[in-house]
């Protein structure tokens, strides 16, 4: 608890890079804190649990955080999945969730603690509901980057609030069919996912209350905000060092 109180105190100001503070979402069961690390990597704190999403980069990025209770991995690409970093940051009780296609690539010591989720499946084992949402490319020239069935986005239900983490994807039917999303973290960078216009179109379809652009290197997120308009509250943060 001492470590957890310290991290909450460090994360109460505004969205920013690692070492800065997190955005807070109020739920029926305490606050959810979102702490962006870099690109597609973030740390979520809620109800005494620490959740790492796609931890990559340097292990020292995570030194101010408790060891994760849960690690979510979206797919096998190196800006989302680094076995050496997973070995360094996980603790003896860390549970992992990953696409079934990725499990065999997990470090041997972590494989037994990984819950495989195929697109459309869900689990309550981490202590909250995690639903795997298909993430893939639709544009013919981009299908080679993220074939259907290889990767997951995730919807987390935390204290009655629904948080969507897109992973790498375009505006798939599965994304557009999402309902009652309170907060969405939405990717947008070419040629691997979608541009800001396509991302804004997706937001207008599934209508999250709040959307954070992430995984947006090189994209005009102010243009994205303009295109979204009043459909959702767009919150911008600098995810890049």
Helix-strand blueprint:
Elements: H1 2-10, E1 23-27, E2 30-38, E3 41-46, E4 49-53, E5 70-72, H2 83-89, E6 95-99, H3 100-103, H4 108-111, E7 114-117, E8 122-123, E9 129-135, E10 151-158, E11 161-165, H5 173-176, E12 183-187, H6 196-206, E13 210-214, H7 221-228, E14 233-234
Parallel strand pairs: 4-5, 5-6, 6-7, 11-12, 12-13, 13-14
Antiparallel strand pairs: 1-2, 2-3, 3-4, 8-9, 9-10, 10-11
Helix pairs in contact: 6-7
Overview features:
alpha/beta; 7-stranded mixed β-sheet; disordered N terminus; single chain; 241 residues; 29% strand
Structure report:
The protein is an alpha/beta fold. The chain has seven helices and 14 strands. It has helices at 2-10, 83-89, 100-103, 108-111, 173-176, 196-206, 221-228, and strands at 23-27, 30-38, 41-46, 49-53, 70-72, 95-99, 114-117, 122-123, 129-135, 151-158, 161-165, 183-187, 210-214, 233-234. The strands form two sheets. The chain has a seven-stranded mixed beta sheet with strand order 1-2-3-4-5-6-7. A seven-stranded mixed beta sheet has the order 8-9-10-11-12-13-14. Helix 6 packs parallel to helix 7. It is globular, with a radius of gyration of 16 Å. The protein starts with a helix and ends in a 7-residue tail after the last strand. 43% of the residues are buried. Residues 1-20 have low confidence and may be disordered.
